[in-house]
Amino acid sequence: MTRQIRDFSFSGLYAITDSGFKGERLATQVERAIVGGARVIQYRDKGGNPDTRYREASEVLSTCRSHGIPLLINDDIELAEAIGGDGVHIGREDATLEKARALLGNTAIVGVSCYNRIELAFAAQRAGADYVAFGRFFSSESKPEAIQASPGLLLEARAKLDCPLVAIGGITAQNGRPLIEAGADMLAVIRGVFAAPDVTAAAHSISRLFSDPENHA
């Protein structure tokens, strides 16, 4: 598939798949998250076999295409290029932003993990990142060893950076609103969506935080 999506609003729920939650076809779970309001999907699988990852990512991309939602690939620039995904999310141990641009082109969406370090966000913005991600903000079962960040970091970043801000780490409908108030444009969620008994309802509850200031659950 060719890349189709470039310009979209960086606002709302950013749902990240996880290899631990595949009780049924992953694309079905992703569609439920999109129906619930997810505005971006990230395919994340750290240990799957290459053929399985290619097949799953392709199926998820087809689902995202049918709903006009961008699909980013976690860490794997080559997989993003192979399936014609909309971009990639990279961290400090992954390929560089420059390599991502060289391989995927200027139309790709490239996001960068900056943990709790605003200097990394400045560098990423200067290098042309489409968004920067901070976190974890809360205890996270998906990434229990992740570096702790505070809402104050979002306040500082919002005042000093021009690019969109993504918050990640243990976020739920119950704790996400203060992060939006501190400056997060998107809330990135793994277990809070895909480990929920009702994926659509979970996604909807988190998505409502952006449109309903009184909603905290």
Blueprint (SSEs and pairs):
Elements: E1 12-16, H1 26-35, E2 38-43, H2 50-67, E3 71-74, H3 77-83, E4 87-90, H4 97-104, E5 109-115, H5 118-127, E6 131-134, H6 151-160, E7 165-168, H7 177-182, E8 186-189, H8 191-194, H9 199-211
Parallel strand pairs: 1-2, 1-8, 2-3, 3-4, 4-5, 5-6, 6-7, 7-8
Rg from alpha-carbon coordinates: 16 Å
The proportion of strand residues reads 15-25%
Q: Indicate the mean pLDDT.
A: 90
CATH superfamily: Aldolase class I
Q: Give a quick account of the main beta sheet: strands, pairing sense, barrel closure.
A: 8 strands, parallel, barrel
Report the helical percentage: 25-40%
- The CATH topology annotation reads as TIM Barrel
Question: Can you identify the CATH class?
Answer: Alpha Beta
Strand order, sheet with most strands: 1-2-3-4-5-6-7-8
Structural category is: alpha/beta
Whole-number count of domains = 1
Q: Separation of termini?
A: 38 Å
User: What overall form do the CA principal axes indicate?
Assistant: globular
